[in-house]
Amino acid sequence: MSDTLTLASQRALAEGGAAERGDADAAYGFAPAIITVLSPLGPQAEAIRALRTHVMAQHINLGRRALAVCGPSAGVGCSFVAANLAVSLSQIGVKTLLIDGDLRRPALDMLIRPPRASSGLAQCLQSPDEPFGAHIDADVLPHLSVMYAGQATANPQELLAGDRFRSLMKFCLREFDATIVDTPPANTSTDARRISGVAGYSLIVTARNKTFVRDVRTLAGQLKADRAVVIGTVMNQA
To answer: How far is CA 216 from CA 43, 67, 71, 223, 238, in A?
Structure first.
């Protein structure tokens, strides 16, 4: 595995605050954890930009357009990393799609709050005759689009294992320079492994003083067995 990058932990999933910024994104509320929008000059945002540099050099510049963000357990900060990485890529002009792939306990709608209830991944995978773009919020920020998880579903594994999800990822590879997919904890379901296998590449997120090395090794081995390449790890500080 490649270098481990360390980021400061964020607890904004539990916070109720949101902020609105300028005309370009006035319709969307941003929780404090979206540091790349709300605190772009701080050290945490700089750490995200270091991660962006790594992803650009080791992934996107090599023609690899999709990346699943995975964690071995809950609470390590996958949604924080996925959202801020996607925003930071869009800030340098990379046409980016952020997907909430957690159909069990979605979190992106608490970080980047849509102005109204949005259709999302669940509806997209259950609607084979509808265009993929109908379920994407375009222009959330310049160069950034978001596909939320949408309504809760009782059969996420079946939806993610279907041909419709594979077709969606092919669409994303054609239409976007980068597609970042947030995934549920790997120790609660196989959803993250399925998403990574289709995306082809994964980034593992860990938490200092919380994640065991053996769990990271186990997850990395499982992803490799599912033919996903792990491009690196990110550690959140406790």
So the answer is: 26, 17, 8, 10, 17
pTM of the model: 0.90
Q: Which domain holds residue 66?
A: 4-10+27-237
Strands 144-147 and 96-100: parallel
102's CB contacts (< 8 A; 6+ apart) are: 79, 149, 182, 183, 184, 191
Total structural domains within the chain: 1
Return d(Cα 86, Cα 121) in angstroms, integer: 17
In a domain, 220, yes or no: yes
Cα first-last separation, the chain: 22
We report the CATH number of the domain holding residue 31 as 3.40.50.300
Q: How do residues 181-212 score in pLDDT, each as one tens digit?
A: 999 999 999 999 999 999 999 999 999 989 99
The whole-angstrom separation of Cα 202 and Cα 179 is: 12
